[in-house]
What we know:
Helix content is 40%, strand content 18%. By secondary structure, it is α/β, with parallel strands linked by helices. α3 (111-127) packs parallel to α4 and α15 (441-448) crosses α17 (459-473).
Amino acid sequence: MSRREKAPQTYEKKLAQLNELRESVGRTKRETERKQHERGRYSARERLERLLDPGSFQELDTFTRHRTIDFEMDKRRPWGDAVVTGHGTIDGRRVCVFSQDFTVFGGSLGEVMAEKICKVMDLAAKIGCPVIGINDSGGARIQEGVVSLGGYGEVFMRNVNCSGVIPQISLIMGPCAGGAVYSPAITDFIYMVRQSSHMFITGPDVIRGVTGEEVEFEALGGAMTHDSTSGVAHFACDDEEQCLQDARYLVSFLPSNNLETTPRVLPTDDPRRMDPELDTIVPDQPNKPYDMREVVRRVVDDGEFYEVHEHFATNIVCGLCRLDGHAIGVVGNQPASLAGVLDINASVKGARFVRTCDAFNIPLLFLTDVPGFLPGTDQEWGGIIRHGAKLLYAIAEATVPKITIITRKAYGGAYVVMASKHIGADVNFAWPTAEVAVMGPEGAVSIIYKRDIAGSPTPEARRERLEDDYRARFANPYSAAERGYVDDVIVPHETRPKVIAALETLRTKRVPTPKRKHGNIPL
């Protein structure tokens, strides 16, 4: 029989081998799904299939296996190891993904698993697309010793190198402990699921043994702990399905990489629309609160506002939305929480969000109503000077279009920090209700006219008259407008068309920056 006649038989054998391997992978997949469904969770592949457009997932490294022989590990070598990697699309746009599989060695990271994650991250960096990691892991694979720790280091290095180059998003859908937490911590956004996600350096048992402190998993490192107390997580979701769908929504606001602009969505909201409700949203009483998020919703397209860090440092509001179909980032003081003052957490939250938007070419809109920095020994000893400087640095450093609207109070150093003209804001508007001054009338009068008030036969009446005089002379937007610190005083209902026109003007903004390795932000 000739070689040509033998070829089909050889090919058929090889094809049979491939089909057998695929069937083996299929059995593993079905077993994984069964185990995860028993726990009320999706499997690693199911999570990716729900995250990505239907039918778009292309798996990589299906047939990799670990190489460890110690501790009888050679007797169990599942295909693909403990992570599923590949790429697909979200709304037709390419993304690279990995999803850790808790049913394989508890999702622990070993040499091969680290290689798979690094490989798909390298691909994302090479083609310039976002990378989304789904974390569900018990940590380093103890059986592989220092090799597993080295694997984490390789992943961390890629997180750092990709930072500010491609969007990195982490979805925590199970445990994430020890050194494993630092990879998500370096990424741009972190999602967690209530009652099923946990992040911590040391678990409850270790804490109990070392410090004697009793703490449960959820209180130590649950979704709401990190979303509201530590600020580690940006979003807390009710279940896995919401987490996956929210991550898809987030991607719609982001460019594929730092060299591109955000994709424009065809707007259905008239860019010339004016909202008369804005004219009365700021109360007549200077100390009465209102919700800055309501201002945002009345200005942006269709009232859609995707808030970031919603439950952390609630005295400042950060989030993503659109104006005339273009993505923008919004940073606003929140009068409904601590009167909108800037404190340590608010400064850090705002600075991080500003730097993220600037890295990915997302214009920034600032809404200012800030009475100052929060006083107190806790703040001073906690480093409010250093942390407040982070927000100042981030805003001054940002080169994307920056537009500021002063809605009410803009006092002291906080006025300067909140994207004033002095630190590089491009267009600054003020509402007629704005008060731009070194401090509020009450404090200013107490300092300037202290002796006059004390010597007056009617101190209270004298104080009121002086406060009215100070308010008329300084606590208004016109003294700042006279010097060009405010470009225009606008009627509140004009805000949407005014901001859209300003953004359109700034679309081609270019800012030359000094040659340097990098600045030294006061971390």
